[in-house]
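[stage:ingest] chain + small molecule (pyridoxal-5'-phosphate)
[stage:ingest] validated
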Amino acid sequence: MSGLDVELRRELAAIQKDALLRELHRVDSSQSRCIEIDGRPFLNFSSNDYLGLSNHPALKEAATRAVAKFGVGAGSSRLVCGSLAPHHELEEMLAVFKGTEAAISFPTGYAAALGAITSVAGKDDVVILDKLVHACIVDAARLSGAKLRVFIHNDLSDLERKLEWARDLPFVSSKSRRRILILTESIFSMDGDLAALRDIADLKDKYGAWLMVDEAHATGLFGENRRGLAEEFGVADRIEIQMGTLSKACGAAGGYICGSRSLIDLLVNRARSFIFSTAPVPAAVAAARAGIGVIQSAEGEILRQRLWAIVDLLKSELIKAGWALPPIRSAILPLLVGKETEAVSIATALRARGVFVPAIRYPTVARGKARLRLTASAAHTAADVTEIVNALTAAKTGN
Ligand SMILES: *Cc1c(COP(=O)(O)O)cnc(C)c1O
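[stage:predict] done
[stage:export] tokens:
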């Protein structure tokens, strides 16, 4: 072994000792309610494919058609080799869907966060983020060079204290004023709870700040037209930067930012993860567009109702089985276990019973807050719910 490998082995051993080692499980089927690992079927309660769109015929057909017409690769960055029609079609649709002037797509949600936050905040600015925002937002905020403040998860008075601090900071710069950017998710990815977007928007106005909301887990699920939690709370037009991913309820891949024309024009000029990265492949954007089409259609409402029926059933069965769950209706059901070793052993016992659920541990969540994160899908059935609840009871008691 080389010197580097010796060091890396030691590091891996330390990760393993803390029950934090992560391993890939090879899946030989599509990502659907049932996946195949090592030739065995597993009931899948781990995917963010909330509406079951990743295997929807309309998305598959859109991807196939895009490959036939536009090929597989995207060639280069859209600023270098020209910008393919499917990207424009997707962005026009996203802007209409979210009710904004414009939209821009990125290869991933991660890239969207990175590009947007570093474009609008710099070293003279302040970024204030919820303690539980996704890693891509944390990374982007750090990379922006702005002064960072983290507020206690969903704690509006703590947010206001941070806003007061930012307002009172002395400002010496050639720029006209300091920007204060508040960053939150709408539905939190590992806890399934929600942000009080209306109150946050009020605070934002009071302190002259800007608001960016990541709707990764809410798009397609909340709001009258399934646009997200901002629509449900009637605050979409008060959010300067709406972000999301096309890889969850939308069933495809990619990230997006929706907002004003000037915001999108600025991102085309400043977002390094847009400028210096090859455009998403035509198949992905075409599938994402078809996914949003399904979400906007009557079928989207039927799928959402189906999802909520599964969520309600799963939740009531889990509570009957003795698990505690947050009160809100969300497709993310975190079963808090605490100890990393215990979360891993329950996940392993579940796999032995043919049920696939991830043990979510540090650094995705805080140390000592390990959990099993169940995600429901419109593709699940009532029998799937019975199966997972029984498997969980058996796994927990070790029977
Ligand atoms: C998944 C996720 C992202 C990243 O989106 P990708 O398209 O998977 O890169 C961003 N924010 C949140 C809250 C997420 O859960």
